[in-house]
Amino acid sequence: xxxxxxxVLELIPDHVKPKAILVKLPATQQQVLHAxxxxxxxxxxIFKPDxxxxxxxxxxxxxxxxxxxxxxxxxxxxxxxxxxxxPLEFGVFYIRFPSQPHGFVNSITGKEFLSVTGDGTNTxxxxxxxxxxxxxxxxxxxxxxxxQLDEIIPKGKxxxxxxxxxxxxxxxxxxxxxxxTGKLSTSFDRISKQINGFYFGRFDLRCASLxxxxxxxxxxxxxxxxxxxxxxxxxxxxxxxxxxxxxxxxWRNLYRVSQENHECGVPYLSFREGRTIYRNFKKITAVxxxxxxxxxxx
Length: 298
Prior knowledge:
By secondary structure, this protein is an alpha+beta fold. It has helices at residues 5-11, 29-39, 64-73, 124-129, 132-135, 138-144, 182-192, 210-215, 240-263, 271-294, and strands spanning 20-23, 45-49, 59-61, 78-82, 88-95, 104-112, 115-117, 158-160, 172-175, 200-207, 219-224. It contains 10 helices and 11 strands. The protein has a 5-stranded antiparallel beta sheet with strand order 9-6-5-10-11. Strands 1-4-2-3 form a 4-stranded antiparallel beta sheet, sandwiched between helices. A hairpin with an 8-residue loop joins strand 5 (88-95) and strand 6. The chain is globular and about 60 Å long.
């Protein structure tokens, strides 16, 4: 917690990650646009805090006006990342014990983006308010789709409301552990070994097909370490007891990785250091969240 997401991205091999740049505050719209141009980034792009969690302040940015709006809210350095326009998104959890030559994948979470499907009768607003998961996002959606809310959506037409795969933004998490194969574990073992010092964490990625996923032909948008969860446990209707069992296994694996790394000379984080990191993290995110609440809706 509290690590730079951009520094983690820099560790990932170039062929499996999208283009990304770090914008340090203070910054102006023109400075961001020039940085994007120099890096070959084009619309749309994803903006997200260099320090953040659970989809906080992650936005799809489509134009210069969106940049101004984002700059008026964000109070910490942020990442501008190429938008990966691939149809499938997964969270793939990988583990390798430092004493072992090879690692394995033990959790795959599929992500079903928040969407509604037209029936030829109801307006977009009615479709949103009639769907429990979408209704929870109403405050954001009524702004994002202000000019379309009164449109009657043709029968069978599917509208993806949010294209960011985060649970708090309405994405449904699905247990896709049936996709785990020896070949898939080998593919992610090959990628992971190119990341110095990495033994435990979740790749949030997109890919074109299940075959590409198994072959490791993916684009990794983010890599989360010991703060990440095996998110397949949030599959709708999943057993609470099984979820607890999976988390206990998860924590045992984390403890073993930590213990084995320590035996190899890696010092443990002291309680005082951990508390300081946590307090600094909460302080930064609290200031930004308070600012977002105070910001009037356009």
